[in-house]
Amino acid sequence: GRNAGAAVNVVTRGGGNDYHGSVFEFLRNDKLDARSFFSPVRQKLRFNNFGWNFNGKIIKDKLFFFGGQEYKYIRQDAAPVRRNMPTRAERLGDFSLRGGALNVPVGYTAINPANGAVVAAGQPIPGRNLANLRLNGQPVGVTPNGKAIASVYTAMEGLAVAYADTPTANNATFQQPNPFDYREDIVRIDYRINSEHSIYGRYLHDKYDLIEPFGTFINSQLPTVPTNRLRPGYSVQLSYTWLISSNLINEAKASSSWNGQRIPPVGEFWKRSTYGFTYPQLFSGGRFNEGIGNFTFAGNGAMANFNGPNASLLSPTTDIAISDNLSWVRGKHSLKTGFVIIRNRKDQNGRSIYTGNLSFNSGAASGAVTTGNAFADALLGNFRTYSEANNDPIGFFRFNQFEAFASDSWKAARNLSLEFGVRYYHFGPTYTQANNMSSFDPGRYDPTKAVTVLPNGTIDLTKGGNRFNGLVRAGDGVPVDELGRVNVSEADLALVPPGAPRGFYQPADKLAPGFGF
Fold first, then answer.
1. CB 428 within 8 A of CB 499
2. What is the dihedral of CA 354, 357, 358, 359, to 10 degrees?
3. Is-contact 451 461, C-beta < 8 A?
4. What is the pTM of this model?
5. To pair with 515 at 20 to 30 A between CA atoms, which of 180, 266, 280, 323?
6. Segment 228-238, tens digit of pLDDT
7. Where are the beta strands (DSSP E) in 362-393?
């Protein structure tokens, strides 16, 4: 729902007076497959899809059952990907085999080991080795956090199916395990009360257990943050059918479904302690605050980017629906009318960058402290930009939806049928229970309260201004019983006025006429 496109209705089977059952198995295996062109080894695949179902009577002509299970066990490798990795010598600060710029950064000097001469900023680093750099007259070399970054690539080398210790592009190939376990259970009970009334109840359960080596919705270029995508699902439905007369029938249904995506990182490669990172974080919020940050490299000397657990998803969802459909056949007309009411609840985190985002860029900028090589800058701890969110907020999202329809299929002639109908939609906006959403409203922007941004990208705190200028909060404030869910200081909250519609727009009411022949 709530999206344009097709709607698919699936009718589950019921039991009958006779007993029936079946079993099935579908198999795939890598021994029947070809090797990927980009991988030195054949991609592993063990795929078993099997199951059973059985149905019959509990009480003849009155009470019936249907049950079944389907399993999927998939043991496979993810598609091979090729990545740029620094050489082992480069991880120690030796760039003698790689071309391109490698200069003494602004604020540094270097010593030529051949003659002891001092080399000024902007000149090539002697021997193309960071060990020859000096800062305030003291040797620098690779810093502790630079060693931690190098340790990430060393650990990733151990996971590669192929690695060439040469300063060439795409010198590492990764083909990571991507196992998947799935099971679906279904039970349906039908009860015929009499010739006019019948009911059925249906229960569905899905087990969904997947390891994604590059992170679900994270998509790290290196497998630093494999995640366990756990998505159990449950659904129950109760249906009541009333044959009012031979040409008039009514069907009412009530259903609810739940699924809970909680996708934690697995293993040790996502943790700061694995590599020895020591740089301080600004805040302490977030579910996996002990994780590494997101590291990006651009320009000369750029290597494969890698991510931490910031974007790990937390998203339990409940969907409740009640519907009723009435069908009436009269002469050459088949008339139908009905409605559906939907209530949806989703509690989802913002997936903010709460363990930090570090960017290394060799691009020349005025006054930039750079060697001209992004990875060398990382070893020296000279990041271009750093950002960090103070927490990973959760939105307790809700929406309501109502639809109703009426249609007539008219057999106007032996070879002509006409279809008339209209559908009414009421879409309520998605809102959060705590009203912890904000948006920019140009009409609320006050130029006199603008902040002053300095050439280095920071705010000039001496000139005042409101950095939330023009923002507006949804709803009329945070409800008292939701205050514990809003991790924002009262001072910051006061700078963003409430007053926008609760979901930022008013409910939409639409009529959709239909005609066919």
1. no
2. -170
3. no
4. 0.85
5. 323
6. 999 999 999 99
7. 385-387
